[in-house]
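Tutorial sheet, problem 5. The two components below are modelled jointly, 336 residues in total.
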Amino acid sequence: MSDILSTAGLKHLSDHDLIAQALLGASAAFGELARRHASALRTHLRRMGAQGPDADDMAQEAFIAAYERLSEYRADGPFVNWLKMIASRRYLRKLKKTQKYLFVDDMQPFEPTPDIHENRAREGQIHDLDGALSQLKPAERLCVTLNFSGGLSHQDIATETGLPLGTVKSHIKRALAALKSSLAVGNDRVAMES
Amino acid sequence: MKDDDFHTLFNTPQRFDDEAQFHDQVMRGLKTGTWLRQGLIALSGIIGGLYALMQFVHLPGWTPAAESEVREVVAKTDTGFEAGLGVGRDLLDAAANYLANGLSRSTDYLTVMQSPLFFWVSFSLCMAIVGLYLVNGREDAL
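Model answer (structure tokens):
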């Protein structure tokens, strides 16, 4: 038992085994889950539009909430998606409290970054998703991230955000078109420079 | 680009320089939360236990008159003994007074804690805390 619960031993266990160990009271098992999925969760929140320190605080809160309610995890999807769902709901709740006009259609992107492709291209990153996402409107960015990163259906996104289903669909459609175009431009620039 | 490519892109996490630091922060938060919860449970258990115990404690024949007698007896020690103590006399007086006051005060608390008013005040406080806990739990739903 002590071998299984050693840090090295935990690394070889699947998420479901770690959850079972954590439910038996092994906090080290949950520590391994946190180590495994922390980057994914922090990235997900940033892609939804949360700013750095805020995103990290919310990711930490999500981990603590998940630990306290671990017995409610039904294993009907990947564990990381459950974590993302918890974090997303917290972020949406905060948005609804603090930025009531976020979902208005004419809102501008959070951080317009016109030269971001240039910077990332220099670093050799052809598919600069984060740069492209930062050029979307907040509501489009939110919907497309919830759909592709959070694994939510259009209907689930409508329920979580409170937006009409048709609006969610059009946000995602527009966001995908804009992302395709941005990423294609980024690729062309890299190709031309190399 | 196809939808699958987007899924792959979205599910590729960024790299963070402070991964170890963030992990430590999460684990510290978990430990603090657990200790706080256990501490609160222990504290409420102790307070509840003490309160329940107080309901059973009755000092036989305890009246305000008996209280003043005890105070007098404790405060006025034997004069011969006092003379023998010399310098320590004041100290003994102070200790005796402190003891008498303490005894008197504890019986005051006991009387208050056994009154119906105290019961209803503490019961209402408990209900308010339970209510707040439930409201907070609903807001904090996953």
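Marking note: The helical segments of chain B are 3-10, 19-56, 64-75, 79-85, 89-113, 116-139. Full credit if you identified this.
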